[in-house]
């Protein structure tokens, strides 16, 4: 708006939102919903621009015919061209894919057929060629529907992966800080809490990248979700600042992987290693449904769904703690791990009375780790114990504590941190926890079974993190811990 182009106010705007289209058991039912939604928007267009269309009433039984009728009138009367916006263009087709309605999906997108959706985009394509349509801007989640339509709309140029647009859809670090500063100023919140909130936002909402070399971005939707709650709660941190609307159903993940077993292997890799390899050749603008479900496409598919992001040119990882928490819950769900509250409630209730890390970790070890098959511990590592313990703590302590994993400091990256929320009785309580995992053989070799206190190397490591933190937050009541895990056999917790 501040820098208008010469095309300002030169187009009539026609907007569709395909998320309103409901799926049914037949193509006819879906088409009827499509017709109802589109008829409403087309009627609105004629009414809105009555000074151009006058008494014109478009004719046609099918939506494609009606749109074509309008485009002919635009050319005939030399009217301003259309700017067509299609929001969530693939919402209903994605529902068909997720629910395994491949037959219906293929009927709608079949390049050899003449479905209502293909006819619709075919008419828009013709309108672009005749200049009755100036632009058509389409948003969606996946590029597969537009690719499967092929000749119906082969003029589409997908810009998601283009370097010049990689910072377009999201907030950069500086933009987030400007946003947060405006919130603090507008509502006169205590500025001493600014850095704490900034750290939370970075850990939970930053990290999305549209290319391996792009700047990381904040998801604007979930960032605003947090800030809305922050304002409504009077400048306090809400209990649950993970917007669960972004949690993709586990069935989507199973569908992507082709089977529950494949999904389990993929989720295991991410929980154990925090990254997964991808084929850079598969990161391209267009691919069809068949390619989308090939094993080599799994990480790329999750990237398009916003669940993974680029780590480097070979691997993908979680963009932030929000997604890491969601994948930990997937791990529990797909491995049938019982998370019933009765197993954990008493231990965490006792923690809220008297914070004791060893007691809640012992509860986690007995009730959670006790459910993990012994063979799974062939690949268990620090990531596994830290991430699953973190996810459990989120469930029971998020009302009082902010939990962070892998925070960066000049001396390195901490494993797990607890911070008491500044509006609770745990204000300024700060715990830093270092994890070390050993197989039985290595534990015997290094004398871990006989330890009576943490080893000097771990003490130095966790102490360095603590010193880095206290430079920025000298008022914190700091406690440092080291947790040693030995296969699935035993553990040791030491306060430094």
Overview of this structure, please?
The protein is an alpha/beta fold and 496 residues long. Helices cover 45% and strands 13% of the residues. The protein has helices at 27-48, 50-53, 63-76, 91-98, 102-109, 116-130, 144-148, 173-187, 194-205, 220-232, 250-257, 260-273, 289-292, 298-304, 321-334, 345-353, 357-367, 382-397, 440-446, 456-472; strands at 12-17, 82-87, 133-138, 275-277, 309-310, 315-317, 401-405, 408-409, 412-413, 416-420, 429-438, 477-486, 490-495. The protein has a five-stranded mixed beta sheet with strand order 7-10-11-12-13. A three-stranded parallel beta sheet has the order 1-2-3. A hairpin with a 2-residue loop joins strand 8 and strand 9. The protein is elongated, with a radius of gyration of 27 Å. The termini are far apart.
């Amino acid at each position: 708006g501040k820098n208008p182009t010469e095309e300002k106010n030169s187009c009539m705007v026609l907007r569709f939102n395909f998320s309103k289209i409901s799926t049914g058991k037949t193509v006819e039912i879906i088409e009827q919903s499509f017709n109802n939604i589109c008829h409403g928007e087309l009627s609105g267009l004629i009414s809105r621009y009555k000074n151009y269309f006058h008494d014109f009433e478009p004719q046609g039984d099918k939506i494609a015919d009606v749109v074509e009728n309008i485009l002919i009138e635009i050319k005939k009367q030399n009217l301003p061209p259309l700017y067509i916006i299609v929001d969530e263009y693939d919402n209903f087709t994605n529902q068909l894919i997720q629910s395994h309605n491949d037959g219906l999906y293929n009927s709608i997108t079949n390049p050899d057929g003449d479905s209502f959706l293909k006819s619709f985009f075919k008419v828009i394509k013709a309108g672009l060629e005749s200049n009755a349509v100036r632009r058509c801007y389409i948003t969606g989640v996946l590029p597969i529907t537009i690719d499967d339509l092929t000749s119906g709309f082969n003029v589409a140029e997908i810009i998601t992966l283009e370097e010049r647009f990689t910072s377009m859809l999201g907030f950069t670090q500086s933009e987030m800080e400007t946003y947060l500063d405006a919130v603090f100023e507008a509502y006169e919140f205590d500025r001493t809490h600014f850095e704490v909130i900034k750290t939370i936002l970075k850990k939970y909402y930053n990290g999305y990248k549209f290319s391996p070399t792009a700047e990381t971005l904040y998801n604007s939707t979930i960032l605003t979700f947090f800030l809305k709650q922050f304002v409504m709660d009077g400048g306090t941190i809400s209990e649950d600042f993970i917007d669960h609307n972004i949690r993709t159903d586990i069935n989507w993940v199973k569908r992507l992987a082709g089977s529950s077993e494949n999904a389990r292997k993929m989720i295991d890799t991410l929980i154990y290693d925090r990254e997964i390899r991808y084929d850079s050749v598969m990161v391209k603008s267009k691919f069809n449904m068949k390619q989308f479900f090939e094993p080599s496409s799994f990480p790329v598919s999750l990237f398009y769904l916003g669940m993974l992001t680029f780590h480097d040119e070979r691997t993908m990882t979680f963009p932030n703690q929000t997604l890491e928490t969601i994948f930990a819950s997937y791990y529990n769900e797909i491995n049938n791990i019982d998370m019933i509250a009765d197993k954990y409630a008493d231990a965490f209730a006792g923690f809220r009375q008297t914070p004791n890390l060893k007691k809640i970790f012992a509860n986690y070890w007995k009730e959670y780790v006790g459910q993990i098959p012994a063979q799974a511990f062939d690949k268990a590592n620090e990531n596994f114990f830290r991430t699953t313990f973190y996810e459990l703590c989120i469930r029971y302590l998020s009302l009082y504590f902010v939990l962070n994993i892998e925070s960066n400091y000049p001396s390195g990256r901490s494993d797990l941190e607890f911070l008491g929320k500044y509006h609770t009785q745990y204000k300024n309580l700060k715990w830093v926890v270092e994890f070390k995992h050993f197989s039985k053989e290595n534990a015997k070799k290094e004398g871990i079974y006989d330890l009576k206190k943490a080893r000097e190397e771990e003490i130095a490591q966790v102490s360095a993190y603590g010193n880095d933190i206290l430079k920025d937050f000298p008022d914190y009541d700091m406690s440092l811990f080291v947790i040693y895990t030995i296969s699935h056999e035993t553990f040791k917790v030491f306060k430094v």
